[in-house]
Amino acid sequence: MTLVKSTTRLFTLAAGLAAATTAAAAYLTTRYWHQVLPNRLYRKAQLALAAKGPITGGWIDQTPRAGYVANHLVASYHGGLTVLQAGRPVTYEFDIAETGAITYLARLTA
């Protein structure tokens, strides 16, 4: 095998590995920001609202939005939880930052 063919094969292999690494990094980054982190933050919101009563349902948007915590721009997720209080379901809406801080909490039902 000539030196040119060996060098060409080596560059082709390196380009393929670089493309595969880039694709894997993009997949893992997207999975983290759109699945792993929102689910982790949803569990934190559940724990924060568990003191108000038993949680009967809830949701969290899997797409991050811009939010501020202590004047710092952070990813924020919007969600809601239904809590049983005095035998009646009460719905809360919340925004939770990537740091785990609840930046907005509102009671929607009386």
In short:
Residues 1-25 form the signal peptide. This protein is α+β, with helices and mostly antiparallel strands and 110 residues long.
Key features?
110 residues, alpha+beta, 5-stranded antiparallel beta sheet, 1 helix
Describe the structure.
By secondary structure, the chain is an alpha+beta fold. The protein has one domain (3-107). The chain has one helix spanning 3-49, and strands at residues 55-60, 65-69, 72-85, 88-97, 102-107. Strands 1, 2, 3, 4 and 5 form a 5-stranded antiparallel β-sheet that branches. It is elongated and about 80 Å long. Keywords: Signal.
Order of helices and strands: HEEEEE
Beta content comes to 35-45%
Going by helix content, strand content and strand pairing, the class is alpha+beta
Low-confidence stretches: none
Can you count the beta strands?
A: 5
What's the alpha carbon Rg, rounded to whole Å? 23 Å
Which percent range fits the helix content? 40-55%
Mean pLDDT: 87
Q: What is the first-to-last residue Cα distance?
A: 80 Å
Assembly of the depicted chains: single chain
| Number of helices in the DSSP assignment | 1
Topology summary:
Blueprint: H1 3-49, E1 55-60, E2 65-69, E3 72-85, E4 88-97, E5 102-107
